[in-house]
Write a structure and sequence with these properties.
Order of helices and strands: EHHEHEHHHEHHEEE
Structural class: alpha/beta
Shape: globular
Strand content: 15-25%
Mean pLDDT: 95
Largest sheet: 7 strands, mixed
Length: about 210
């Protein structure tokens, strides 16, 4: 089985370095280009079904993916990004100043700590696991998830069991798609950057 993990295209809040969470902003011109590249890649890889977050920026991304890869697409609220609570829509530099202690705790251990009125990664895992388990139990051999940065981290962790070192190294730019391939007892991970050929291992660079 092959599972592809794509992040939505770049948004205006990404450019402005604002926390998005369950909030939303529109794709930029670059984000639209990235979405089309995702579609070309998923079409080339013969993906048969796409599971996606129901948030607006992912819906925008899916509309552009569909131009290149017209397959069954299913939206699920359980695939949403981490709820960032009171930080949503706020610039990171402002959060660092206003919530110094909370931000430091969250950066050091976001598995346990959550933004004020938001979610931790531990809070997210049950809802994402529920969807992933249902997908891996069906007969599709190549499926994709189009979601968010932190959601993709959780999916990768659930699929391959990221080591502490990998969690520190992992980067998920908007233009990168990860692929996890399972064959018998063996599992391999690759990533594609801007629709190019696959590179073995997780992505460790933003550039």
């Amino acid at each position: 089985m092959r599972i592809y993990l794509a992040r939505h295209g770049e948004t205006q809040w990404n450019v402005e370095r604002r926390m998005q969470g369950w909030g939303d902003s529109a794709l930029t011109t670059l984000g639209e280009q990235q979405a089309r590249q995702h579609g070309q890649l998923l079409n080339r890889e013969n993906v048969s079904r796409i599971y996606a977050s129901d948030l607006g920026r992912v819906r925008q991304t899916l509309a552009l993916i569909r131009e290149q890869c017209d397959v069954d697409m299913r939206f699920d609220a359980d695939l949403r990004e981490c709820n960032m609570g009171q930080w949503e829509g706020q610039r990171v530099e402002d959060i660092q100043q206003e919530w110094q202690v909370e931000y430091r705790q969250w950066r050091q251990d976001n598995e346990r700590f959550s933004p004020p009125a938001g979610e931790s990664i531990s809070d997210m895992k049950p809802r994402i696991s529920k969807v992933l388990n249902a997908v891996t139990d069906n007969s599709d051999s190549r499926v994709a998830f189009v979601t968010h940065g932190i959601t993709t981290r959780v999916l990768l962790d659930l699929l391959i069991g990221l080591t502490d070192q990998q969690k520190l190294q992992l980067r998920i730019p908007n233009g990168v798609v990860h692929m996890v391939e399972s064959c018998g007892n063996a599992t391999h991970v690759y990533h594609f950057r801007d629709g190019s050929d696959s590179i073995e291992g997780i992505c460790t660079s933003r550039d």
